[in-house]
Amino acid sequence: xxxxxxxxxxxxxxxxxxxxxxxxxxxxxxxxxxxxxxxxxxxxxxxxxxxxxxxxxxxxxxxxxxxxxxxxxxxxxxxxxxxxxxxxxxxxxxxxxxxxxxxxxxxxxxxxxxxxxxxxxxxxxxxxxxxxxxxxxxxxxxxxxxxxxxxxxxxxxxxxxxxxxxxxxxxxxxxxxxxxxxxxxxxxxxxxxxxxxxxxxxxxxxxxxxxxxxxxxxxxxxxxxxxxxxxxxxxxxxxxxxxxxxxx
Length: 248
What we know:
The protein is 35% helix and 17% strand. The chain has 8 helices and 10 strands. An 8-stranded parallel β-sheet has the order 7-6-5-4-3-2-1-8. The radius of gyration is 18 Å and the shape is globular. The protein starts with 5 loop residues before the first strand and ends with a helix.
């Protein structure tokens, strides 16, 4: 029986979604291309995962990698993707927008939150790129955002632990602070004890080898500085189970 905080597992494939469900995840954050930090899932991925899992789906709305300052054309893509996600069975929307000077993009975030209703909204780790964490948190509370995913504006949750504790205290229950970024089986107990988080976010992934036996090393399909093209990551059921046991 689950007694601990809610565990959200970030997945970018059908296989990972099924493994996370089997391992005891409470909710899935569904995205595409975790190598870019997570992008909007394709129509086929969203529909197939929705048909294959019973867990609540938090669907990422992020049109590209890199920063979170978007053109009007990119914002229109976000509007359309958000509407499609709602129509295809999303239970929550995950998004994040910043202005050029590192503030929460209030006008655009307000518009997407309204478009998302009645579904709840999580502001993702764009928060960790904001100029001032405390001000950004108050802005999100004012916009009616239900959750914020954060590593405490550091590379990992452990590095940003003091900031996360301060954010929880500042939030005073008005918004859910979800630690995420670099959480492992080894550091999860410390993170939960320090933050008393009601939810946490992990990928629980391991590296898998391609099934291809013929490989052409002269051609790269992606950026030359990207990950190896004959390996990829997927959530592993056994890791999800271990996280669940540690949280409970």
